[in-house]
Amino acid sequence: MRGALLVFNILFVIVGITLIGLGVYIKVDDNFASVLSKIADNSDFSGQALGFLAFVMIGGGVVTLLIALFGCMGALWNNRCFLYIYAFVLGLLMILELVAFIMAFVYKGQLTDVYKDTLFKVFDKALTENQTSVIHAFQELENKMKCCGIHNISDYGKPPKVTLSERCLAAPESEGCSDAIIGFLNKHLPIIGGSLGGVLLLELCGLIGAIALAVALKHAPDDTLVYKGGKYR
Q1: pLDDT digits (tens, 9 = 90+) for 81-100
Q2: Is residue 160 within 8 Å of residue 130, measured between CB atoms?
Q3: What is this structure's pTM?
């Protein structure tokens, strides 16, 4: 039990460090920051989200790291207080995740409309103001996702305001990228759902393991357990 809890939290530590590293990279990389800042100027909704992307990732990484450290210290030092704190925070995190999943499902239609509207505003303003880096990013997306425009090729105007991407030139009847992205997510929904379910299952195992170890420590004569013969005694 103790070993499994340690392994689980070591994985959490790796995830936390990875999130912090990605957040720092996004923050300091000039090319990435330049594209984000240009996109952010196009929409209040996406601008706020993109502007705080790095801070959210760093903050999430720090929180994940702290949770994992409580779990590791509780397991290594046989400290019930740390284990209970770890279990409480992990349980709270699971509740928040479940609420977020339920809200995303209930408001799926509204979220889809906001997403499409926001993406089009970013695209349209990039065309109007000739923001080449943003336009290039969209056209790279078109080539990779085999789509054209946000809704369709007419988003570029008649005649087109810029040189069209290879995809739009080769197949102007292609579906819009907003629908292509949704289709991609729907196609991989079982994988995404399975991954999220796996994360929740791991968190549940960590929660149960922490509580079980804390309860076992409570009933230990000297408040310390020694691992012998496959069991804590």
Answers
A1: 999 999 999 999 889 888 88
A2: no
A3: 0.67
